[in-house]
Amino acid sequence: MRRPGPSSSCRHGSAALPTLLLLLLLLAASAQAQQARTRTDPVEADALKGVFDKIGREMWPSWFSSSVDPCTGAATDDTDTDIDHNPNLNPAIKCNCKYQNNTVCHITKLKMYALDLVGPIPEELRNLTHLTNLNLMQNYLTGPIPSFLGELTALQYLSLAINALSGSVPKELGKLVNLVSLGISINNLNGSLPPELGNMVKLEQLYIDSSGLSGPLPPSFSKLTSLKILWASDNDFTGQIPDYIGSLSNLSDLRFQGNSFQGPLPTTLSNLVQLTSLRIGDIVNGSSSLAFISNMTSLNTLVLRNCRISDNLASVNFSQFAKLSLLDLSFNNITGLVPQALLNLNSLSFLFLGNNSLSGSLPSSIGTSLKNLDFSYNQLSGNFPSWVSPNLTLNLVANNFVVSNSNNSVLLPSGLECLQRDTPCFLGSPQTKSFAVDCGSSSSMSGSDGSVYLPDDANLGPASYYVTGAPTWGVSNVGRFMEAFERDYIIQSLNASYTVYSSTRLFRNTPDSELFQKARMSPSSLRYFGIGLENGNYVVTLQFAEISFEDSRTWKSLGKRVFDIYIQGERKEQNFDIRKEARGSYAAVQKQYIIPVTRNFLEIHLFWAGKGTCCIPSQGHYGPLISALSVTPGAMGSDQNAKRRALAVCVTRKLSPKHCYRILGRVERGLGCGVHCSKCTFCSRDVFLLSCSCLVCLGSFACC
């Protein structure tokens, strides 16, 4: 019997299998051939090569070999398009290869981030006309922002922040109508913002902090209604904060600290109910209320520091601010009681109400998260509540509390009684006539000036104070380093990597390098106190050296630290810049003042007024810094030795008779040398050297 053969369908399937395999092979070959035919636009390839040739030759990418097209490999990988947040792709490009039937690639993203590139922005960039994202952040690019960037109209993200760019902002950037994010923070720009930038109506993020800009904010910015983030701190913007800022209702993060804005604050800010972070500070004049914040109940961070606010905390219903974690209303003129509802907020961790006119007693309870409270420099009084504990950082300096063993004060760091208003320790019965402190150090040392510098390594937090066991001096710190989750308030001299501590670096302009190896730093307000001093005139010597910023041509050198110096409540220095005065980092600079002490008490106050960069070499690196200080009796240079040194310098330095008479006259009156350095090597051209130790500087360092 004949066996049945395979069915027709089986016979056809068996025959079709080789055909299907052949078809797949042909398709794969076709795809490979298609990919082989896909090439980067030659104009863009040449432009990219030119960019790297000018500013990036040292990190020449592998795709610049003669046989490799730039738009290959990771550049065309659609699964990883966010090159800005991928540290393994730097430098990097991204391409779109769907042009002309998938035969032409255009470069759409270029990232050259934190590579310490040096030089001007290359002209060749103008030929990368399909760029949507250009990231040149954290380099050392110099020269102006080129106007041709305005021709790259496809750009959505442009970051030129943290560079050494100079000149004005070109009005041509206003042509970038598709721009979503613009960053020009931390540069050396000048002039005002061009009104043409108001044409960037899709802009959601604008970073112009620490850029060097000045003048009023242009009225055309009222058109930027898509803005969500506006950082404009540390500039010299003038006039009032415009009313139209209140119409930018999509804002979630607004920062206006360290400018020259006039008060009062516009009431239209009350419309910004989507804000989660608001930081305004350092308003020049006028008076404002707190009423405008009443509806900003989405706030997580609220800083209205040094804003000339005259109001009562009871004018705001703080119980509605359930998300608030940090509140800073310090350095205002806020009066009345501290509301219980404010301290009961369960999300609140940091509360800064210092330097106001608050009165009455402290509330009876606090929220579970509140661990850092500053009430210093108010008019508070009464008993200490039961919530006072060693687990809190609580600053009650300069109030009217009576400190005794019966009112929970034993739970506070000792010495608070010596730092209350009108009742400092040893009032009328002085105990000392000098002291010296090596700020941040854990051991004492003898200085070349004969002073013994005592250690100062107390673990101060965001709202802390410390008084020595035998109370001769104390220190108070207030403030939180914003954006820095953990930041020490004592820093050490670092090597170039900023990761390894060093204790052997030699500092210029001083025989006492050891004094400068460590320093105490504060994000807001740092005070040193002399306790039980004899009344009379004192020479207060403050010593500084910048140890956070490098001097080389790197983005890590672009940081700037600026603060004010007050002694006995009188401002002695405004916008003091250590590195500018010392002509570089790791160089000592000394400031000296004749200060009268009349109530056996001395206060030295270093105050941050919103100036300086925020985040170099890392986030939360700003505010006052001091290396050492000494307080000694007498007037500067009033002895015969000072006169002899002055005469010797006049002769050896061949100073003009006018200069010599000036020196001798000031020495005779006990006012210091007062020599103006017009041709200096290490000292600033614009300062007067204010002590006869400057005569050593004149002889040893050829300052004048």
From TrEMBL:
Keywords: ATP-binding, Glycoprotein, Nucleotide-binding, Phosphoprotein, Repeat, Signal, Transferase. This is non-specific serine/threonine protein kinase. One of its GO terms (molecular function) is protein serine/threonine kinase activity. Residues 148-363 form the Disease resistance R13L4/SHOC-2-like LRR domain. The keyword Transport does not apply. It is an enzyme of class 2 (transferase). The lineage of its organism: Eukaryota, Viridiplantae, Streptophyta, Embryophyta, Tracheophyta. GO terms for cellular component: plasma membrane. Its EC number is 2.7.11.1. It holds the Pfam family LRR_14. Residues 434-629 form the Malectin domain. Residues 1-33 form the signal peptide.
